[in-house]
Design a protein that fits this description.
- The chain has one domain: Dihydrofolate Reductase, subunit A (3-Layer(aba) Sandwich), CATH 3.40.430.
- Helix content is 19%, strand content 27%.
- It is globular and about 45 Å long.
- The two termini are 34 Å apart.
């Protein structure tokens, strides 16, 4: 089976909290484009609700599950139209290197990750990030219970932080976009 080469990836927590569509929508035109990215949900435990909007959208969706998830959990996801990809999940977390290897075998060469801190932090922890694009909105949310944009192990000192090179800053409407490549 051949997919489009571009994909968008998120985690189960984002699907549960935000119920996103993860589709390309034409700016200022109100429509959608025919060529949708492959949507990938990293969900080790199979918590993605089968009634999520992502399954009603055009295009393909892969749900990545731990290889020990029961048929009782898998069946509703398949019925919703998801392709299931089962991978090892040491300590309950999907093996992201194995996932990227499988996606590479499908000739998927570019993945946009639009996810919460858990998945993003895991990708950084494992050195699997090439480029960062961050949008900053002129909003201050705050709160002691706020979630970090990048969770994971983090670093012990600032000298260990991943640094960006070829940094670009641009305004996008009221937001500011900062992008750059991880120094390697």
């Amino acid at each position: 089976m051949r997919y489009v080469r571009d994909a968008i990836m998120t985690g189960a927590n984002t699907i549960i909290a935000d119920n996103p569509r993860l589709t390309v929508r034409l700016a200022d035109k109100g429509g959608t484009t025919r060529r949708q990215p492959l949507r990938i949900i990293v969900d080790g435990q199979g918590r993605t609700p089968p009634h999520s909007r992502i399954f009603a959208e055009p295009g393909k969706t892969i749900v990545v599950l731990a290889d020990n998830v029961t048929e009782e959990i898998k069946r509703p996801l398949k019925e919703a139209g998801a392709e299931l990809l089962e991978l090892p999940a040491p300590e309950g977390m999907i093996d992201l290197k194995a996932l990227l290897k499988k996606l590479g075998e499908r000739e998927i060469t570019s993945i946009l990750v639009e996810a919460g801190g858990t998945l993003v932090g895991s990708l950084f922890d494992q050195g699997l990030v090439d480029k960062v694009v961050v949008f900053l909105a002129p909003l201050i949310i705050g709160g002691a219970e706020g979630r970090p944009a990048v969770a994971g192990r983090g670093v012990a000192c600032l000298a260990d932080c991943p640094r960006l090179k070829r940094v670009r800053v641009a305004r996008v409407g009221e937001d500011v976009m900062v992008s750059g490549y991880i120094k390697g």
